[in-house]
Amino acid sequence: MSTLAPATDLAGLVARRPVGQSLEAPFYTSREFFDLDIEAVFARHWLFVAAEAELPEPGDYVTVALGPYSVVVVRDDDEEVRAFHNVCRHRGARILNDERGSVGNIVCGYHRWTYGVDGRLLHAESQPADFDPSCFGLRSVHARTVAGLVFICLAEEPPADFHEVAARIEPYILPHGLRRAKVAAQIDLVENGNWKLTMENNRECYHCGGHPELQCSLFPVYGYAEQDVPPVLRPAYERYLRADAESRRTYESLGLPYEAIEELDTRTTGFRIQREPLDGAGESFTEDGTAACKRLLADFRTPRLGRLSMHMQPNAWFHFLSDHAITFSVIPLAPDRTLVRTTWLVHPDAVEGVDYDLDSLTRVWTATNDQDALLVARAQQGIGSPAYRPGPYGPTEYQVEAFVNWYATRLKAHLAR
């Protein structure tokens, strides 16, 4: 059973969660559920935390805060990505306090215990003669890179299906060359809402009329079955069908996998991946759909590759284009506060001001993120009202239902332990 001792009947709320409806208010508002989410979801599943481009050289690191946990993700001297608990093995002090940086060794600022970037304890002053430093290396965290993306898992025994998931998504992502990409920009945005509202909002385009910048390039029919497309979206849907047929011919000629793989709530590491066209020029997320970066990410014969999009439960989504890639990670901060980190990646030799304009590169998703933050805050405010009752998901919100079903399934499995 869970080690939590909440006043709320967590198990009862999880057990009675109705299929096809939003969650009851305590899931989004209570501290008990927030703590359970950290324990049952974020401490037990694979999480996307960074792109390898954020760790270009040995000694480069980022720190990740997950509830009571702090994790150091670092590139070691053999250029492998490793992860460790950010806790000194002497008396438990937090070691690295910055969000990112570069080190030769990892040195605790309290008593100067010194660790290599491989986690080994290298120096501990004034210890007895029988002290064995090999017993006091940093506690490791499981880390795995997939086609230039870094995932970690805090569990002692991480979900075993991640190896299979990685093998299925790598052929889609590898052609974009992320392992040698560089960071063009990174923006952190704190949304005033529960992390699940952030994820639910991302999983549907029912609200996409509120994203005018995004709708210049993203077909607003995402998630719609043909019979559910309303008359107002029918012209966009017809354009999508024509662009999709053209894109499939392009993908096949280039040997790029494109068919959707959707296993959002049927496995422990839920995911969805698909390559499909963009509107306008069909090249990138810009106001006319043309490439935002003249230097393409890889040696593509055409920039008109649309978008390769991927969703990963529980905390990430991605867009891989011909000219750049965008990663999004979600970190819970409090029951009503969530960090959304957006990172733009470009070719390592792309030069700002020559190959790309930073504002043009980031404008669409900066605006979209700000709009989503407002929608999430409104949802949090409404759910906090005593008048709130769970409402039904429509057909276009099937991926929201899949996320919530995945989440409820993971809680049930944890509470039954």
TrEMBL record:
Residues 47-152 form the Rieske domain. GO terms for molecular function: dioxygenase activity. Gene3D superfamilies: Naphthalene 1,2-dioxygenase Alpha Subunit, Chain A, domain 1 (3.90.380.10), Rieske [2Fe-2S] iron-sulphur domain (2.102.10.10). Its cofactor is Fe cation. Pfam families: Rieske, Ring_hydroxyl_A. The keyword Transferase does not apply. This is Aromatic ring-hydroxylating dioxygenase subunit alpha. It comes from Streptomyces hyaluromycini.
